[in-house]
Design brief:
By secondary structure, the protein is α+β, with helices and mostly antiparallel strands. It contains 18 helices and 13 strands. Helix 1 packs antiparallel against helix 3, helix 3 packs antiparallel against helix 4 and helix 5 runs antiparallel to helix 6.
Length: 527
């Protein structure tokens, strides 16, 4: 408003200086506008009632009336100055209908001012008598005010929605920041140029562990990083963050960071980020401290090695004394008992010897030609006494011979685990049936061997059956009955069967028993 009136005054002085000298209205109007400008900039309107905000545009109409009266013969369109207070009223957002009405009345008053008062700088009888000439001006300004009011309400609505969205975003950002900072997992976010965007407290602690001795800080490429053995340095181009910045995605890479007593083991995972054009835009790298888990694994391996060593000596002695006893002239029944004891002692010695290897990698099998019928028969004979003592009937249906390429130790454990579970989870008076048969030409692998163990035990629900091969899982009924066990037997059994290229199936109904079926290819797993 002020800028426009200054330009008008300059134009009038240049075009027709006499107007300013002959009529006081130009100076009165211009002075009023300058005074209102001063008020607009100095009065603390935010401390006053909102409706007082209208006093400036309403007084603008008063100042514009004499100003345009003096300048209208020099420049056309002076009445358009009323658009400023009209917009001001509409944009205020206060009482929209009243604001439009006041804008209309103010424009009408300014438009008719020179005609009603008869104050014109030049004689123009025609214009003085034509009171209908400015009738369209107020209506045009009313239309402009209505448009401005609608636009203002729309902008206000958008502003409210944007403010609400911004508050929600801020709240979510605070929540995310709290989660990230309180997480025990190290989180590093890097942009496409390799600049760190985010590093949480857990990762900062890990970062300091990897700094060379005597350093207070350093870049990622300076950290002391080693392979899982804690000794082999990782080359610069194979470091987790370096590979992540190349857009690689990986999960669970084990590295060691730091040296001496402060060294920690980390499981590192990375996931790249892409922009809307599917271009690489950075990466998120997650560092999970698995030092305790690695220590537990090493402790377990030492324990297994020590136990296998301690078991081997007495078992060797037992087998030796059994050999001596078998050389004597024995009763046939006693000889049979001693033969079974000797066979199981030898099997136990074989198990103890291979215990460490089995714990380290259950997917490795040592294949040889095995008579599955004989192996299964031995397991049945070993389980008969326990079944009889539990009040169970154990029957078997075995062929005379069934040769297969298999690992005798691991397949023996499979049969033993299934029989042991059947005896353990079948109540007194129940029955257990074991069968072995050949399934000729099942698929491209050729013939298969099928071992089935059926019991009349507790059975399982569908939900329990789905979790059956999970480590440490035990059904609710078994837990309530306080039946001893760790929940590892079936998980180990499944891993042995899969290592042979086979499968293990379960059919069960709660209260009606279960049937475990093992199938392995007779020719051994595909290489």
């Amino acid at each position: 408003m002020t800028i426009s009136t200054v330009l008008v005054v300059i134009a009038v002085l240049v075009i027709d200086p006499g107007v300013a000298m002959e009529s006081p209205y130009l100076a009165i109007g211009f002075g009023g506008i300058l005074f209102l400008t001063l008020l607009a900039g100095t009065v603390p309107w935010h401390r006053l009632p909102a409706v007082l905000y209208w006093s400036i545009p309403l007084l603008d109409f008063v100042a514009i009336a004499p100003f345009w009266t003096a300048a209208r013969y020099v420049l056309d369109g002076m009445v358009l100055l009323t658009a400023f207070p009209v917009f001001w009223l509409a944009w205020s957002g206060l009482y929209p209908m009243l604001a439009l009405s006041l804008g209309f009345l103010g424009t009408a008053a300014v438009s008719w001012w020179p005609y009603v008062t008869g104050t014109t700088p030049f004689s123009d009888a025609l214009m003085e008598s034509s009171l209908t000439r400015p009738v369209m001006v107020p209506f045009m300004m009313l239309s402009l005010g209505a448009a401005a009011s609608i636009l203002t309400r729309s902008m206000d609505k958008q502003r409210v929605e944007l403010r609400a969205s911004l508050e929600t975003s801020k709240s979510q950002n605070r929540m995310l920041q709290t989660v990230v900072e309180t997480s025990d997992v190290g989180i590093l976010v890097v942009d496409g140029q390799g600049h760190d965007l985010l590093m949480n407290q857990a990762q900062r602690r890990t970062h300091f562990i990897g700094l060379p001795p005597g350093r207070d800080d350093g870049a990622e490429h300076e950290l002391l990083l080693f392979e899982a053995d804690g000794l082999t340095p990782i080359p610069a181009d194979e470091r987790p963050v370096t590979q992540a910045l190349q857009g690689r995605e990986y999960r669970g890479r084990i590295v060691a960071i730091g040296t001496d007593g402060s060294q920690q083991h980390l499981s590192v995972s990375a996931s790249p980020m892409f922009d809307e054009d599917d271009r690489f835009d950075g990466t998120v790298v997650v560092f999970q401290n698995v030092t305790d888990l690695m220590d537990a694994i090493q402790t377990r391996e030492r324990f297994v090695a020590e136990v296998s060593h301690e078991f081997r000596t007495p078992l060797t002695s037992i087998i030796g004394y059994l050999d001596l006893a078998m050389e004597e002239d024995l009763d046939p029944t006693l000889r049979q008992f001693l033969t079974t004891s000797q066979r199981n002692a030898e099997r136990l010695l074989t198990l103890v010897t291979s215990l460490l290897d089995a714990a380290a990698d259950s997917s490795t099998v040592s294949l040889q030609e095995v008579d599955l019928s004989r192996l299964t028969r031995y397991s049945v004979e070993s389980a008969e006494v326990r079944a009889r003592n539990s009040g169970l009937t154990l029957t078997s249906d075995l062929p005379d011979h069934l040769l297969a390429q298999a690992d005798p130790v691991k397949m023996g454990q499979v049969v033993d685990n299934l029989l042991s579970n059947a005896i353990k989870y079948t109540p007194d008076g129940g029955s257990i049936t074991l069968s072995l048969r050949c399934l000729p030409g099942m698929d491209e692998k050729g013939d298969w061997a099928e071992l089935a163990v059926e019991d009349t035990g507790f059975g399982m629900t569908d939900q329990e059956r789905a979790k059956l091969f999970t480590n440490f899982y035990r059904t609710e009924h078994v837990r309530k009955a306080a039946i001893p066990g760790t929940g590892l037997g079936l998980a180990i059994t499944q891993s042995f069967v899969r290592a042979h290229g086979g499968e293990i199936l379960v059919a069960s109904e709660q209260g009606a028993g279960s049937t475990f079926t093992v199938r392995i290819p007779i020719a051994g797993p595909a290489s």
